[in-house]
Amino acid sequence: MNTMQKVVPVDVVGVGLNATDTLIALDRFPSIGQKVEFQTVQVLPGGQTASMVVACQTWGLNTRYVGKLGDDSAAAVHRAAFDRAGVETHILTAEHTASEQSIILVDGSG
Question: What is the pLDDT of residue 4?
Fold first, then answer.
């Protein structure tokens, strides 16, 4: 029995970072000890390697992503984004682990 899988050539392989980005829009940054209300919140797939692979796929290249995700809702966001873009994935799931996440505050000037 042959256990080797046939590897299909691709144009770009990305190995590494993915992180779910939570973008929070503020009118202005708070001063120390101050609170401000936020306007909107967006949860988006991100991370340098994952974003690069999805961009390359969108530009017409055949891509493969190799990386690790937790077993949380952030992982589902990434899996769905890779599927929508048509990226071939080889993802290790780290059970009982949160995926990488970033919180990005954006002030009124962008």
Answer: 61
